[in-house]
Structure formats: structure tokens, C-alpha cells
Amino acid sequence: MASSPKPVLYTYFRSSCSWRVRIALAFKGVAYDQVAVNLIKDGGQQHVDSFKTINPMKQVPALAIDGIVLSQSLAIVQYLDETRPGPRLLPEDAKKRAQVRMISDHITSGIQPLQNLHVLQKIGEEKKLEWAQHFIITGLQALESLLQYTAGQYCVGDEVTMADLCLVPQVYNAVRFKVGLTQFPTIVKINNALLELDAFKVSHPSCQPDAPPQS
Amino acid sequence: MASSPKPVLYTYFRSSCSWRVRIALAFKGVAYDQVAVNLIKDGGQQHVDSFKTINPMKQVPALAIDGIVLSQSLAIVQYLDETRPGPRLLPEDAKKRAQVRMISDHITSGIQPLQNLHVLQKIGEEKKLEWAQHFIITGLQALESLLQYTAGQYCVGDEVTMADLCLVPQVYNAVRFKVGLTQFPTIVKINNALLELDAFKVSHPSCQPDAPPQS
């Protein structure tokens, strides 16, 4: 496969992991093409053979860029940060960078995987709301505590970082699963500040070409 | 709290996330003190208030180092790699570095969280083996495919990287949950090669001070 000058993002409008990458692309001002992979329709387009060769994990996002295909949102975000110009998403200071990764991993390993589509499908329709709420609330309680040590205007200090790219889609998921947010004042404050920024607006699920009109 | 010259690792012998960090510390030749946090005894020592202030997520590992406390294994491993001398765990080449993070995240976000203690406790004694096996097998199948693109002697090329620090503890978990490994020849080959290395041997769960005699 010849490398294309324009990256191609395999995405689904409502996937929180895809949203993280869309924010990074917007924040860095990287032009890209989108291929929508509908995770619901036809039993899930991520299961077709042509997509399996792109991402064997059968999940979005995946990004074809510079002649390789990358999956896993944080690997993609950090690759973009290390190879593309524009405002940096990982701070220069090693301790702050570690805190950004700690918060990012807390969300992407500690919260999000437990409300992933294939997990909720295994839990079953009847129990999935209680299951998702349990792990989102536990995870956000810990995050609210962590942020007391690290937050300024955003998750770590006063610059937008990779941690913020994880926060906003996770809060969006919390709302989808009807989790009340009043017990998380720091998270809510940061989330509201981030939603004012262009990169977060244009990448919002409701603005994606594959979003149905009512979303 | 004054910063200590010697880092302190909060760990549990059988925690695969703690093992990742122990390998990194050994690989980099960093001397450290251990505090054992028994995740089972007394309903789990991670729930006591004194530990909650160390890691609000109430999980191991946590590393007190350079005046801060870090949790999340990959954040810790990358902080050690960026601040300590010794062989590097993230390759210099940006594409290879992205592949290392992709494989690491695939294991730490895509497989391990679904067989974490607090998840299996919620699934219940009766169903937990089938649940863990399902997600480990699915995850290792995808990993076996990914490795066809990236592996040399180890997960990415011929140098030990952060991805290898994730692979070995995950294979150990697979064995604990009675997953047959013959369908994963690349994973088995790399795992066996890694287990020959000192850093993987000294950090093994069975060699830890908090391991019971029979483990």
C-alpha cells in the first residue's frame, strides 16, 4: 500500500476513543479524510474482513498515516504530537508529562474499557446501564481526587493536554449513561472550559458526517 | 512531604500492572523500596484511607519518586525511561515508538482491565473464569495479528521495549486463567525469549517479598 499524503481516520461518530483522535487532529490543524465504520449497523462494520486487516482488534479509531496504520487513541495522539507542528499536547516538563499520561491512562484504561460496546454487549441489555454507571462513577470519583493535585484551568496546569482529550469524551459518555455530575465540580468546570475551544467543537460527535440527524 | 532519594513502589506480587513497573525498575537498574499492598487480605489493603491518599484509584502500582506520586503503569514506565539512564524502553524512531505504545495500550486498555480484580468481583465467582478467558483470548488473537507487522526477536523489532513489559505479565495472567497458548505462536516465542532476561526474572511475582511460599 502506497503511503498517502493525507491521513485517513477510521472513525465512528459516537466512539469516545475516536473523538480523542479527532480533537488531536483538529488541535494540530492536520487535514485528513474520514472513513465511517458503523459499530452497530449490519452487526458492526468493524467485523468485516477488510477492516480486520486495518485493525485486528476490530475497533475504531485507526489512523493510516505516513505509510503505517496505527490503532489505540493515545498511541495515535502521541505520534501526532511528536511528528506534527502546532501546540504540544504533552508538556515539556517530565513530571507534568507523567501526570498527563497518568490521567489519560486512568480514563482510557481504568474507565472507558468497562463501558466499551463489546463489553456491554456481553453484560446484556438488562444490566448494562447499572454496570456502566458503577464503573464510570467509581472512575470519576478517583479522577476528581487526582485533579486536586494536577489541575489548573485544564486537567494538568493551564495548557490543553492529552488528558483533556480524554476527559471531554468520557464526560460525554457519563451523560449518555445518565450519571449525575454535580458530585464532580472540578471535572465539570474543566469540561465546560474545554467545550468552548474550537478543536473540541468541530470534533464533537454531533458534528460528524456519519452522525444521524437527531444526534 | 520531602522527596526521598530512593523511590518507593507500592506493589502486590501478583498484580500484572505492578510487574510491568518492577521490570522497568530492574531494566533501568533503579534501586527502590517496596511497600506491599495486599489486594485480598482484610478486604483489600488498597481501600484503607492511608493508601487512598497515595492513589485515589485504590490500585497498585503507585510510585513515589522525585517528590511526586505516580500511578498508572505506563505513565510510570515512561517517566522512568525519560528521567533515568540505561537502555531505553521507547525506541528513538517515532513510528516504532508509536507501535510500542499501540501494543502496550492494546494490552493495558484492551485486555487487562477486563480481568482486573474489581471487575471480576463484580462479575461473580461463578462466571469470572469464562469472562476472563473470553476477553484474554479475543485480545491475544488481535495481539498475535498485530505482532506479525511489528515483531522481531521481541514485540517491536529486536530491542526490549515497553510493549514487552506488558506482554509477559499478560501471558502470566492468561496461564492463571487457564487459557491455552498454542494458538499464539508468536506471543509464546517472544514471551519465552523475554523470560530468559534478568530484569524479567528478578521481577517475577514468585520472587517478590510479599509472595506466599507456595506461589
Automatic annotation (TrEMBL), chains A, B:
<dbReference type="InterPro" id="IPR036282">
    <property type="entry name" value="Glutathione-S-Trfase_C_sf"/>
</dbReference>
<dbReference type="GO" id="GO:0006749">
    <property type="term" value="P:glutathione metabolic process"/>
</dbReference>
<dbReference type="GO" id="GO:0004364">
    <property type="term" value="F:glutathione transferase activity"/>
</dbReference>
<feature type="domain" description="GST C-terminal">
    <location>
        <begin position="93"/>
        <end position="213"/>
    </location>
</feature>
<dbReference type="InterPro" id="IPR040079">
    <property type="entry name" value="Glutathione_S-Trfase"/>
</dbReference>
<dbReference type="InterPro" id="IPR004046">
    <property type="entry name" value="GST_C"/>
</dbReference>
<dbReference type="GO" id="GO:0005739">
    <property type="term" value="C:mitochondrion"/>
</dbReference>
<keyword id="KW-0413">Isomerase</keyword>
<dbReference type="InterPro" id="IPR010987">
    <property type="entry name" value="Glutathione-S-Trfase_C-like"/>
</dbReference>
<dbReference type="Pfam" id="PF14497">
    <property type="entry name" value="GST_C_3"/>
</dbReference>
<dbReference type="InterPro" id="IPR034333">
    <property type="entry name" value="GST_Zeta_N"/>
</dbReference>
<comment type="similarity">
    <text>Belongs to the GST superfamily. Zeta family.</text>
</comment>
<keyword id="KW-0585">Phenylalanine catabolism</keyword>
<dbReference type="GO" id="GO:0006572">
    <property type="term" value="P:L-tyrosine catabolic process"/>
</dbReference>
<keyword id="KW-0808">Transferase</keyword>
<dbReference type="GO" id="GO:0016034">
    <property type="term" value="F:maleylacetoacetate isomerase activity"/>
</dbReference>
<protein>
    <recommendedName>
        <fullName>Maleylacetoacetate isomerase</fullName>
        <ecNumber>2.5.1.18</ecNumber>
        <ecNumber>5.2.1.2</ecNumber>
    </recommendedName>
</protein>
<dbReference type="InterPro" id="IPR036249">
    <property type="entry name" value="Thioredoxin-like_sf"/>
</dbReference>
<dbReference type="Pfam" id="PF02798">
    <property type="entry name" value="GST_N"/>
</dbReference>
<keyword id="KW-0963">Cytoplasm</keyword>
<dbReference type="InterPro" id="IPR005955">
    <property type="entry name" value="GST_Zeta"/>
</dbReference>
<dbReference type="InterPro" id="IPR034330">
    <property type="entry name" value="GST_Zeta_C"/>
</dbReference>
<dbReference type="GO" id="GO:0006559">
    <property type="term" value="P:L-phenylalanine catabolic process"/>
</dbReference>
<dbReference type="InterPro" id="IPR004045">
    <property type="entry name" value="Glutathione_S-Trfase_N"/>
</dbReference>
<feature type="domain" description="GST N-terminal">
    <location>
        <begin position="5"/>
        <end position="88"/>
    </location>
</feature>
<keyword id="KW-0828">Tyrosine catabolism</keyword>
<comment type="pathway">
    <text>Amino-acid degradation; L-phenylalanine degradation; acetoacetate and fumarate from L-phenylalanine: step 5/6.</text>
</comment>
